[in-house]
């Protein structure tokens, strides 16, 4: 019996090594291919079907490969209860992951609904990124403490979750739902309404730069900055659903939909670009003649060039291949 157990243990260890090696082989084959648009990460489905050895080996392998880990964390109350009973911790998944030093700044935690204040602090101190999925949360999971996470310094982005939990798979819809669900949670938890519980500007950051940070790609995408890739979504501000226009940040969340999105160039991560009018300046995009670089303009002199560029794009006569943003 002892020899059988030892053999079983050795076979398990060998299979674990072979499986991890296969992940490394896939990483070496596919990571940074397609002009750098394909990134390979390691994935843990959830803690309920993962041993501590699998978790720690995945952590170490991700560190070795300098890549990220995606994992569903603290989705449902049963998950926390099971971990309390089987792993000997006083709360749940995040507490146990912190205990085995799995929480790292390259970890993207999906959902993270059922966490307490102490666990939120653990996420913040470790630099863990959180993907907030409002549609899935309302459908089956619960209300994540997003306001508290942001206040603690956690990088929170937006996600759609998988098709069985969502069906729509629209990041534009998730922005709108995020603005509603978190205001509703505020009423439920405090008994008072607060329309500023999760401001439109914050949600826009969650959908753009925080999304880039969450996938460890913020040095290249996620915002319109000099040297970054020109990943752009053009929104039509003249459609009937966008009228009247009072607050650009709010209108992108509440009135925007898939029908107002005109074009999406260099599709890496959704980045929303809009025309903002004021008495002092016009923010616009001025395209170079080759249409491979983008300049940011804050004066009236490039207004015509901007509108002409957008006109050419709408006629599909101008295309943006992988581009970078340059100075004036």
UniProtKB/TrEMBL annotation:
Residue spans crossing the bilayer: 265-287
Keywords attached to this entry: Hydrolase, Membrane, Signal, Transmembrane, Transmembrane helix
Coiled coil region boundaries: none
InterPro entries to which the protein is assigned, alphabetical: Amidohydro-rel (IPR006680), Metal-dep_hydrolase_composite (IPR011059), Metal_Hydrolase (IPR032466), MTA/SAH_deaminase (IPR050287)
Signal peptide positions on this chain: 1-22
Keyword Calcium: no
Alphabetized Pfam families for the sequence: Amidohydro_1
Keyword Membrane part of the UniProt annotation: yes
Residues of the Amidohydrolase-related domain: 29-237
Protein name (database record): Uncharacterized protein LOC107013566 isoform X5
Organism: Solanum pennellii
């Amino acid at each position: 019996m002892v020899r059988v157990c030892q053999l079983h243990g050795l076979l398990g260890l060998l299979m674990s090594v072979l499986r991890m090696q296969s992940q490394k082989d896939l990483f070496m084959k596919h990571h940074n291919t397609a002009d750098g648009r394909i990134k390979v990460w390691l994935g843990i489905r959830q803690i309920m079907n993962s041993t501590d050895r699998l978790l720690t080996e995945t952590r170490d392998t991700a560190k070795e490969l300098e890549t990220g880990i995606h994992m569903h964390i603290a989705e449902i109350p049963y998950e926390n209860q099971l971990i309390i009973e089987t792993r000997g911790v006083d709360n749940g998944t995040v507490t146990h992951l912190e205990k085995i030093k799995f929480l790292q700044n390259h970890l993207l935690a999906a959902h993270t609904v059922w966490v307490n204040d102490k666990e939120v602090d653990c996420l913040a101190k470790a630099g863990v990124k959180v993907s907030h999925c409002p549609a899935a949360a309302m459908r089956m999971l619960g209300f994540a403490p997003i306001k508290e996470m942001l206040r603690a310094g956690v990088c929170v982005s937006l996600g759609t979750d998988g098709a069985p939990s969502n069906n729509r798979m629209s990041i534009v819809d998730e922005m709108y739902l995020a603005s509603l669900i978190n205001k509703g949670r505020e009423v439920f938890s405090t008994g008072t309404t607060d329309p500023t519980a999760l401001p439109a500007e914050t949600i826009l950051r969650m959908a753009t730069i925080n999304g880039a940070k969450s996938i460890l790609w913020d040095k290249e995408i996620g915002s319109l900055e000099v040297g970054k890739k020109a990943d752009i979504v053009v929104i039509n501000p003249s459609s009937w659903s966008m009228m009247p226009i009072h607050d650009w940040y709010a209108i992108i969340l509440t009135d925007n939909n898939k029908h107002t999105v005109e074009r999406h160039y260099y599709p890496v991560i959704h980045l929303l670009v809009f025309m903002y009018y004021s008495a002092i300046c016009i923010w616009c995009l001025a395209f170079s003649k080759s249409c491979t670089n983008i300049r940011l303009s804050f004066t009236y002199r490039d207004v015509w060039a901007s509108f002409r560029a957008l006109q050419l794009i709408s006629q599909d006569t101008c295309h943006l291949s992988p581009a970078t943003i340059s100075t004036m």
